[in-house]
């Protein structure tokens, strides 16, 4: 099997965009964790205590100070949670930004047709180092036939290390694959590893080659 994979990974800050390793990414602010989400971790948790502190500040009308604490809580919970890939689909064409894509209705591909994949990641480690933040991920892939036989892949495929000025909470993978395969049923597996916390997640997409 011959494979000529191309991967573009996009990363965007809250107040602009940054080009890194041939990839662009967009980020939009998301709401902080609710009181119930933090409290569910236990009354004795550090996050629950910080949330109570934020609530006290809100009662005193200090909204900006409370928001700063909630941002800290969000980052802490994000780093503690398992690495996840909540969205992974074949798409019609290469997506341009986070959440903007057209899901491909069919998993059947003609011979020589490029396969485009869109995937979102959550809870990758955002490591603070003084005034900057580090992200370090590796991506690998494997291809299996209908009987589960491993046909090929690359491990690791790509390494990505980023330094950002603010935490980035929206992250997507834009992957393109060109496989030289006989007609039949196959499965594409993509593995993402977080090198800063030894987290790992993966997803599989079955497809058919005509």
Question: How many structural domains are formed by the residues?
Answer: 2
CATH topology of the largest domain: Immunoglobulin-like
Shape: elongated
| Poorly predicted runs | 2-44
Secondary structure tally, helices: 3
Order of helices and strands: EEEEHHHEEEEEEEEEE
Which structural class fits the helix and strand makeup? alpha+beta
Q: How many strand segments?
A: 14
First and last CA, distance: 15 Å
* Whole-number mean pLDDT: 80
The CATH architecture classification of the largest domain is: Sandwich
Fraction of helical residues = 10-25%
CATH class of the largest domain: Mainly Beta
Describe the protein.
- The protein is built from three helices and 14 strands.
- The chain is of the alpha+beta class.
- Helix content is 18%, strand content 44%.
- Strand 9 and strand 10 (150-164) form a beta hairpin.
- Strands 6, 8, 9, 10, 13 and 14 form a six-stranded mixed sheet that branches. Strands 2-11-7-5 form a four-stranded antiparallel sheet, with no helix packed on it.
- The protein folds into two domains: 2-28 and 82-209, Immunoglobulin-like (Sandwich), CATH 2.60.40.2550; 35-79, no CATH class.
Describe, in short, the structure shown.
This protein is of the alpha+beta class and 210 residues long. 18% of the residues lie in helices and 44% in strands.
Secondary-structure blueprint:
Blueprint (H helix, E strand, L loop, with lengths): L1 E2 L2 E6 L7 E2 L2 E2 L10 H5 L6 H14 L3 H18 L3 E8 L16 E2 L5 E8 L4 E3 L2 E14 L4 E15 L6 E7 L1 E2 L3 E11 L4 E11 L1
Parallel strand pairs: 6-14
Antiparallel strand pairs: 1-12, 2-11, 3-4, 5-7, 7-11, 8-9, 9-10, 9-13, 13-14
Helix pairs in contact: 2-3
């Amino acid at each position: 099997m011959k494979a000529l994979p191309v991967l573009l990974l996009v990363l965007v800050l809250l107040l602009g965009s940054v080009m890194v390793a041939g990839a662009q990414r967009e980020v939009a602010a998301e709401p902080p964790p609710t009181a119930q989400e933090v409290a569910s971790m236990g009354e004795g948790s550090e996050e629950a205590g910080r949330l109570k502190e934020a609530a006290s500040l809100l009662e005193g009308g200090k909204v900006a100070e409370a928001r700063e604490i909630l941002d800290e809580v969000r980052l802490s919970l994000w780093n503690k949670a398992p690495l996840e890939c909540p969205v992974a689909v074949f798409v019609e064409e290469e997506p341009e930004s986070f959440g903007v894509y057209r899901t491909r209705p069919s998993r059947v591909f003609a011979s020589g047709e490029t396969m485009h994949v869109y995937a979102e990641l959550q809870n990758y480690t955002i490591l603070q180092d003084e005034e900057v933040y580090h992200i370090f991920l590796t991506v690998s892939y494997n291809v299996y036939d209908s009987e589960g036989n491993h046909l090929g892949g690359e491990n690791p495929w790509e390494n990505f290390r980023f330094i950002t000025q603010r935490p980035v909470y929206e992250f997507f993978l834009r992957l393109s694959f060109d496989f030289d395969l006989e007609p039949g049923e196959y499965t594409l597996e993509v593995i993402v590893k977080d090198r800063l916390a030894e987290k790992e997640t993966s997803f599989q997409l079955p497809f058919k080659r005509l």
